[in-house]
Amino acid sequence: MVKRITMLLLLLIFFSFSIEGLYAAESTARIPELIQGLKGWDRDATRAAYDKLYKIGKPAVPYLIKVLKDEDPGLRSQAARLLGDLQAEEAVIPLGELINDPKSWVTRSAVFSLGNIGSPAAVPILKKALKHYKPKVQEAALISLDELQDKSALPDITELMVASNDQYLRWQAMMVLRSIEKGSEITTLIKTLDDKKAKVTSRRNAVVMLGELKAESAIPSLIKALDDKDAGIRWGAVEAIGKMGVIQARPKVKEMLKDKNLDVRMFAIGTLGRLGSKDSVTALSRMLSSKPSEVRKNAIRSLGKIGGAEAVKAIREKLADSDRYVKVLAIETLVNLNDTDSAAEIRLLASDRSPTVRTVVMYALGRLGGDSALDVLQAGTEDKNFWVKGEAERSLKKLQQK
């Protein structure tokens, strides 16, 4: 009885292996057919073929490598992706040859697959992909290098971080650099900013990124950069100092209000507003007499951020500005500062020739009130301009409900 059971078990095992072998042989025979099924626009059909090939696994790899040279770009891309999912290390070199594929999206698939495979042999290929003419391929290379965590790629990633024309790519490179070696991104950016022999564009990129990262270790370099001969680096340093709230740089930033470059002056005004010191009110008030209206508006914004009696007094004077948009901004800022004392001066602009100014006057009186606000708003409801009339009606209703 025992012998009979043993024999039955052996027969079952034999047949099991036989059936499995037959299934494997049948599956292998279907590989060429399934590969052809990767073509076409029927997503369900191509997905089904893809899944079956993935299930077959390693036996499909030689066939897929051969297909990487097929004339159909869609098939090349699918084969590249599948080789990555199968983590076929023997496909690294063939996939690398797709770096020069005429279709960049095929190259992108190959680059992602190299990251999935995870072989150190892919690193030189991925470095080459970092210099590809398509940002999407460069991005894929960064992601794959992040997967591999290979420090030999740091110089190439660094170059992309400071030199790329694509802001998103620069940031992506910075994140990968940080992932591979934390802290190296800050050190590299500071070194680039300090290097007067580096490309101006790279130094400009570095100063902007240091501001975004709010890197405190970069403060000495940022203050030094305020004297740089390049205006782009100067305004980048001023903006970074504002974002980081570097109070000790305030005296130097005040000096930048006299910079010959308009952009530098504009950023200096904005930074003084961010730093928020009443010591800056006098210097900012002087900027209200600048010829460019954008400078005057920026000075009003910064004075509004700082606040206080002196700032309010300076802003009130711009209610008589020749530029309607400067007047509008002055009114809005006084409302934000809740300067109820300015209501009497603002009401005098209710007859301004600009409907934009009149509209903002109606808005302001509805918030600041005042003894004569109701009369002015009532008159505003008869204004010929649709926007002035509408704002007067809303503000009048607001005051009457109080």
Short description:
The chain has 402 residues and is mainly alpha-helical. It is built from 25 helices and no strands. It is elongated, with a radius of gyration of 34 Å.
Low-confidence stretches: 10-26
Instruction: Write the H/E string, N to C.
Output: HHHHHHHHHHHHHHHHHHHHHHHHH
- Give the strand tally: 0
- Helix and strand composition category: mainly alpha
* Main beta-sheet annotation: none
The Cα radius of gyration reads 34 Å
Please tell me the overall pLDDT: 92
Commentary on this structure:
It is a single chain. With 402 residues, this protein is mostly helical. The chain has helices spanning 2-29, 31-36, 43-56, 61-67, 73-85, 92-96, 104-117, 123-129, 135-148, 154-163, 167-180, 184-194, 200-213, 219-225, 231-244, 250-255, 262-275, 281-286, 293-306, 309-317, 324-336, 343-347, 355-368, 373-380, 386-400.
Task: Annotate the secondary structure layout.
Elements: H1 2-29, H2 31-36, H3 43-56, H4 61-67, H5 73-85, H6 92-96, H7 104-117, H8 123-129, H9 135-148, H10 154-163, H11 167-180, H12 184-194, H13 200-213, H14 219-225, H15 231-244, H16 250-255, H17 262-275, H18 281-286, H19 293-306, H20 309-317, H21 324-336, H22 343-347, H23 355-368, H24 373-380, H25 386-400
Question: What would the keywords be for this entry?
Answer:
402 residues, mainly alpha
